[in-house]
Amino acid sequence: MLRIAAAAAHFTRDLAFDLERIGVIIAHAREAGVGMLVLPDGALGGYVTDLRPTDADEVDLPPALEPNGDEVRSVIDLAAEMVVCLGYCEAGPDGERYNAAVALCGDGILGRHRKVHHPAGVASLFTAGRGFAAFDTPVGRLGMLIDHDKTFPEAARSLAMDGATIVGCLSAWPTSLTNRAPRMAQDRQARLFDLYDQSRAAENQVLLASANQSGRSGALHFLGRAKVVGPGGEILARTWSKGGLAVAEVDPCAMVDAARAVLHHLDERRPAAYRC
């Protein structure tokens, strides 16, 4: 059996603060017997402060970090035996910036992902990633999605087709910017955030661990609502708007095999009939 945790937590531009918070979250997860932990997007350096910037030259961007830099190496040391996924802004070799995620443990880097789908308001601020790939880890074959990636069914499906049985979704997902509800639980983005998590898990019959930022950053009010979702779309554990850990004890291979025992969505596909 494996305990998977998804975190809801707030992160900032202060990298020392972020590393300290990551250390505390990992310690709490370890006390709970967690073997895999998914942290939010922007766990190192935070996320943007507005999805509709009026002047791209004045945007408060997160620090661009080296993919094998000191910050990532510090988390490797903290992770030890645990598989940890976290998001950050990656510095490209030619000055470009990627909204990126890394999966790691004490042995080093296990896999990486660069966000492919960017909302229109920030698309000019980051270079888009070029694809989706799963990779092997001590807890099973894993794939990662960042924020807006999970809005697109093809993204999670690509990971499932590449053998992922667990998908980590790392988000800095805010409440609605255009029609914010008086209560966060009633916000349409809260509904969509949960809907996408459950749909991506159920349609691909995989386990999904969805982490998200909480609190406020500039114009954005993040939802929290971290969760672990089973391969039938059922929420196995969750947090609400405040920080916390959603922890579920699972048997990934057995649960995925059971979900696919009669209806096997990947095998039943008819690609020749699709126009995308």
UniProtKB/TrEMBL annotation:
GO terms for molecular function: hydrolase activity. Keywords: Hydrolase. The keyword Hydrolase applies. InterPro entries: Aliph_Amidase/BUP (IPR050345), C-N_Hydrolase (IPR003010), C-N_Hydrolase_sf (IPR036526). Residues 2-252 form the CN hydrolase domain. CDD domains: nitrilase. Signal peptide: none annotated. The keyword Hydrolase applies. PANTHER family: CARBON-NITROGEN FAMILY, PUTATIVE (AFU_ORTHOLOGUE AFUA_5G02350)-RELATED, NITRILASE C965.09-RELATED. This is Carbon-nitrogen hydrolase family protein.
